[in-house]
């Protein structure tokens, strides 16, 4: 009888079709989120554990990493890893993996859904019909904006940002981007200053990584540069946008629309956004399709298996 490798699972992967079950079938899983005293559980059960499974929701901070003296691999479900202390992991020689690429298209598709919904007032139109206002003689909603042929600005031209840009070409849009550095392998225009990109763009899509380095990257100056007809879309991480500045810009008429899948203090959403007809709001569902969640689950499990088989994960973050 083959002995199962023992792992620690930081939190339940409820957003994946069968991840918890498949982990339990293949490994001896310590379900950390069920432990009444996490610190005591790590001290008692952590010795000998060389791999943990987590996600951006649960992360892996330095305290957790350093509580596991034999840790060698952190396998995360999802593309974001800003809640994992990669620096602490690297200092210990611990590999960190995520699940890139497999969710790129679905997140890019949702960005476009938000963009069109914001421009064409789809959310407001649906509420209008559901409320029975269409049949009123004088019932009407304000005109929307055309998407095709406009100017698309992308904040962060990584895998997802580039997929969004490619879709923009199909809509006959001009595309420019802002990055930490210019890319020589793409033909899109580059703007070194984010305010300059916002001033040029009709649509500004946030697709950059999260974490301290990008917190409030999209601030009051950027939002006001986008202007009273400009539309901001965020499918990245909520804290990249200064949410208080966003609400203020919408209320002052200095920004046209916010179409958001992520928020600064999830799951809390400002009441001003909930009540605004200038906002389209989704509950962080960028990767929430059957196909993508299954692919994320598969790749997370493949990373874990590869570590135990070869000592190396497949998709290290650095």
TrEMBL record:
GO-annotated molecular function: gluconate 2-dehydrogenase activity; glyoxylate reductase (NADPH) activity; hydroxypyruvate reductase [NAD(P)H] activity; NAD binding
GO cellular component: cytosol
Keywords from the named record: NAD, NADP, Oxidoreductase
D-isomer specific 2-hydroxyacid dehydrogenase NAD-binding domain sequence ranges: 113-286
Domain of life where this protein originates: Bacteria
EC number: 1.1.1.215
One Pfam family recorded for the sequence: 2-Hacid_dh_C
Boundaries of every D-isomer specific 2-hydroxyacid dehydrogenase catalytic domain copy: 17-317
InterPro entries, sorted: D-isomer_2-hydroxyacid_DH (IPR050223), D-isomer_2_OHA_DH_cat_dom (IPR006139), D-isomer_DH_CS1 (IPR029752), D-isomer_DH_NAD-bd (IPR006140), NAD(P)-bd_dom_sf (IPR036291)
Family indicated by similarity: Belongs to the D-isomer specific 2-hydroxyacid dehydrogenase family.
Protein's name in the database: 2-ketogluconate reductase
């Amino acid at each position: 009888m083959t002995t199962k490798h023992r792992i620690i699972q930081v939190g339940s992967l409820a957003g994946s079709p069968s991840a918890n079950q498949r982990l339990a079938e293949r490994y001896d899983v310590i379900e950390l989120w069920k432990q009444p005293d996490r610190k005591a559980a790590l001290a008692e059960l952590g010795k000998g554990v060389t791999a943990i499974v987590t996600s951006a929701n649960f992360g892996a901070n330095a305290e957790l990493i350093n509580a596991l003296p034999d840790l060698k691999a952190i396998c995360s479900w999802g593309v974001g890893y800003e809640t994992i202390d990669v620096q602490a992991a690297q200092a210990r020689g611990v590999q960190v993996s995520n699940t890139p690429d497999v969710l790129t298209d679905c997140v890019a598709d949702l960005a476009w859904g938000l963009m069109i919904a914001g421009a064409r007032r789809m959310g407001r139109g649906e509420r209008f019909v559901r409320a029975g206002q269409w049949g009123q003689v004088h019932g009407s909603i304000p005109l929307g904006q055309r998407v095709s042929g406009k100017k698309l600005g992308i904040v962060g031209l990584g895998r997802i940002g580039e997929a969004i840009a490619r879709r923009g070409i199909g809509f006959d849009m001009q595309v420019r981007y802002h990055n930490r550095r210019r890319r020589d392998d793409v033909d899109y225009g580059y703007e070194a200053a984010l305010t300059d990109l916002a001033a040029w763009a009709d649509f500004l899509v946030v697709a950059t990584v999260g974490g301290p380095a990008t917190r409030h990257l999209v601030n009051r100056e950027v939002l006001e540069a986008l202007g009273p007809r400009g539309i901001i879309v965020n499918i990245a991480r909520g804290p990249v946008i200064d949410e208080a500045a966003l609400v203020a810009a919408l209320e002052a008429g200095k920004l046209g629309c916010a179409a958001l899948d992520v928020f600064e203090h999830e799951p809390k959403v400002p009441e001003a956004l909930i009540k605004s007809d200038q906002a389209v709001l989704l509950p962080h569902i960028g990767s929430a399709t059957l196909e993508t969640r299954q692919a994320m689950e598969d790749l997370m499990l493949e990373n874990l298996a590869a570590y135990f088989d070869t000592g190396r994960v497949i998709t290290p973050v650095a």
